[in-house]
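Support request from a user on the community tier.

User writes: "When I paste my C-alpha cells into the form, the page sometimes reloads and wipes my input. The last time it worked, I copied everything first. Here is what I submitted, just in case something in the input itself triggers the reload:"
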C-alpha cells in the first residue's frame, strides 16, 4: 500500500486526532537526556522513530548508497539527495511502521533502541536555514494591511496582482518552536512625536505563515520551471514571522522591511513531506489578470490546511484560539513563488526557506496577524478572561497549529510556539 493510503495503520496506536499518523511521517531533529547527540527522526503517534538507528541497520538506505545522512544535526544532507530518495525512504519507513510488518513490530530490542516516547524527545532546528525569503501572497492580508496602513482608498499595491511580492529576510534568526522571543529594541516614530525614538518595540505582532523547505537547487542565471519548482520542495512547516510593526513603519521606506522582521522567526520542529500533502491539494483563488507565462501553473497548486493561532497571557492557564484560517486562501502558490524567485536568475539552494506570507481569510475570525485582528490597534481583541490585546505584551505566549484533515486521520504540523521576554534596557 502506498504511504498516503487512508487505510494504512501502524502497530503503534495513533489517536484519530493525533498530528502524526502513519500517513504523515514528518521529519525532525531530536536528542534525549540519555543520548544528547542530535539525529533525525520521524514522528509517529506519541513516539519518534530514530532514523539514525534505522539507517544503521541498513533498513532505509537506498540500494548502493553507503553514506549516512540521519546521524547529522540537520536534515540538509538528506534533503540534498532529492525526491527519488525522499520517496523511497518514506515508503520504507512507512512499511517498517505498518501493523502488518513484523521487522520492527516483533523485534523488542530494535524497538527499544529506535522508538522514543515523544515526551522524552527534545526537538531542535530541523535543518540549517541557508537563506530565508518572505513573501506577501495572501490577497486578504495584503488588502487589510493596505487599508490599515495607507487608508481605505488604496488597498493592493499596483504590482501586487502581477507577481508574488517578497523580500530577502534573515536566516540567522530562524528558531525552533519553544525558543523565547526577546522584545526587540529599535527606532520608531509614533505619529504624535517630531523626532524618532530608540527603545522597545511597542507594537509586537505575529504573522501566521507556512514555511516551504527547499531540498533542491537552481543555478544562477537559470529560471525555474514549474516541474523543477515542484521537485525542489521537500516539505512544509508552520512559520511565525514575528514582526515589530512600529519599527517597520519607520524603517520600511524606500527599501522595504529590514530589522522589524529580522529579530526572530519561529518554525515548527516538524517538516511535513510534500508527498504527505498530495491528497489535500485544492484549487487556489482565480488569478485575474492572468499571470505571465513564467508564472503559469497546473491546477490544484494550493493545499487545504486548517490553521489556528492560540494566545495565552501570563494570567491565563490555557491557550485561547484567536484565529482560525486556511492555507488554501493564498493567492500565489508556493510553486509560483519559487518560479518567480528564479525568474531573474537568482540561484536557490538546499536549505532555503520560503515564508508564504501572512495567511488571512475573508472574515474577522480568519486573520493571520494582530495588526489585522485589532485593526491597527484601534479595535482590541477580547480574551476569554476579559483581558484585551492590540499587540503582544511581555509574558504573552503564542502558538500556531495546523493540520490537513483526511478520512479518519489528520496530517498535523505540531506547534510553532514562543513567549515574549521583556526588552533589554536601551543604552543611555
Ligand atoms: Ca511575513
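"...and here is what came back when it finally went through:"
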Amino acid at each position: 500500500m502506498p504511504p498516503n493510503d487512508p487505510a494504512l495503520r501502524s502497530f503503534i496506536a495513533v489517536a484519530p486526532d493525533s498530528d502524526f499518523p502513519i500517513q504523515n511521517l514528518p521529519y525532525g531533529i531530536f536528542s534525549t537526556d540519555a543520548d544528547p547527540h542530535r539525529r533525525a527522526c520521524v514522528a509517529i503517534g506519541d513516539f519518534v522513530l530514530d532514523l539514525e538507528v534505522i539507517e544503521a541497520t541498513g533498513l532505509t538506505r537506498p540500494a548502493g548508497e553507503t553514506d549516512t545522512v540521519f546521524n547529522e544535526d540537520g536534515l540538509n544532507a538528506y534533503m540534498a539527495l532529492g525526491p527519488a530518495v525522499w520517496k523511497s525512504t518514506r515508503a520504507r519507513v512507512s512499511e517498517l511502521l505498518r501493523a502488518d510488518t513484523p521487522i520492527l513490530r516483533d523485534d523488542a530490542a530494535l524497538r527499544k533502541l529506535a522508538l522514543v516516547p515523544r515526551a522524552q524527545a527534545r526537538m531542535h532546528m530541523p535543518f540549517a536555514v541557508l537563506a530565508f525569503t518572505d513573501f506577501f501572497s495572501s490577497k486578504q492580508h495584503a488588502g487589510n494591511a493596505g487599508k490599515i496602513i495607507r487608508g481605505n482608498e488604496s488597498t493592493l499595491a499596483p504590482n501586487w496582482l502581477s507577481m508574488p511580492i517578497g523580500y530577502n529576510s534573515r536566516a540567522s534568526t530562524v528558531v525552533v518552536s519553544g525558543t523565547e522571543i526577546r522584545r526587540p529594541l529599535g527606532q520608531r516614530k509614533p505619529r504624535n512625536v517630531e523626532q524618532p525614538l530608540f527603545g522597545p518595540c511597542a507594537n509586537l505582532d505575529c504573522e501566521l505563515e507556512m514555511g516551504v523547505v527547499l531540498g533542491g537547487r537552481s543555478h544562477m542565471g537559470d529560471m525555474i520551471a514549474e516541474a523543477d519548482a515542484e521537485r525542489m520542495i521537500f516539505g512544509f512547516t508552520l512559520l511565525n514571522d514575528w514582526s515589530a510593526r512600529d519599527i517597520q513603519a519607520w524603517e520600511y521606506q524606500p527599501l522595504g522591511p529590514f530589522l522589524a522582521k529580522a529579530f526572530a522567526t519561529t518554525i515548527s520542529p516538524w517538516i511535513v513531506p510534500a508527498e504527505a500533502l498530495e491528497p489535500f491539494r485544492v484549487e487556489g483563488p482565480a488569478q485575474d489578470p492572468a499571470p505571465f507565462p513564467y508564472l503559469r501553473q497546473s491546477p490544484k497548486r494550493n493545499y487545504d490546511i486548517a490553521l489556528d493561532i492560540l494566545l495565552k497571557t501570563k494570567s491565563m492557564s490555557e491557550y485561547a484560539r484567536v484565529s482560525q484560517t486556511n492555507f488554501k486562501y493564498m493567492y500565489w502558490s508556493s510553486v509560483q513563488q519559487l518560479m518567480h524567485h528564479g525568474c531573474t536568475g537568482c540561484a536557490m539552494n538546499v536549505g532555503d526557506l520560503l515564508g508564504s506570507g501572512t495567511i488571512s481569510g475573508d472574515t474577522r475570525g480568519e486573520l493571520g496577524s494582530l495588526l489585522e485582528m485589532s485593526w491597527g490597534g484601534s479595535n482590541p481583541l477580547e480574551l476569554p478572561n476579559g483581558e484585551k490585546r492590540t499587540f503582544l505584551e511581555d509574558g504573552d505566549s503564542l502558538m500556531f497549529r495546523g493540520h490537513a484533515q483526511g478520512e479518519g486521520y489528520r496530517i498535523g504540523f505540531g506547534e510553532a510556539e514562543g513567549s515574549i521576554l521583556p526588552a533589554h534596557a536601551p543604552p543611555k
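Agent notes: The reload is a front-end session timeout and is unrelated to the input. Residues 131 and 374 are 31 Å apart (CA to CA). The chain has a mean pLDDT of 96. Escalated to web team.
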